[in-house]
Design a protein that fits this description.
single chain, 2 helices
Length: about 130
């Protein structure tokens, strides 16, 4: 599957985006402009257009894991982070804005102003309670 207007189906169209690792079904990519705040951050994306994580094949799951471990090794060696935030946003309510499955890989550091605040921090706030 391919979608003409999807930035992850056209991963090479953005000159700022770099393929750091790849295997048969997936890429680990980084974008220069994202490095200003989230140093070392990147995405693992399937090569074929899959709307969200629930559409991934078994091989895409396995290949995503392989790239996650490979990305961690590269990031550990280059940045020596103190932790990681890793996650999928799925559907608009889940925070997904580009509807091509992508796994966020974000190195975290003890000297960040929001160190210790993980993925759930934002959705656990009182203001987010359903009415």
């Amino acid at each position: 599957m391919y979608h003409e207007n999807c930035p992850y189906c056209n991963v090479n169209a953005d000159e700022e985006q770099q393929i750091v690792l790849e295997n048969e079904t997936c890429y680990f990519i980084q974008k220069e402009s994202e490095q200003q705040v989230l140093q070392g951050s990147g995405l693992i994306i399937p090569k074929l257009h899959k709307q969200d994580v629930f559409e991934l094949s078994e091989q895409e799951w396995n290949d995503s894991r392989e790239l996650l471990l490979g990305a961690k090794k590269i990031l550990d060696d280059k940045y020596t982070p103190d932790g990681y935030s890793v996650g999928w946003n799925t559907g608009r309510a889940g925070g997904q804005s580009i509807f091509h499955a992508h796994l966020h890989v974000i190195p975290r550091f003890n000297d960040e102003p929001l160190a210790g605040k993980g993925i759930r921090y934002w959705i656990k706030q009182k203001e987010n309670k359903r009415k």
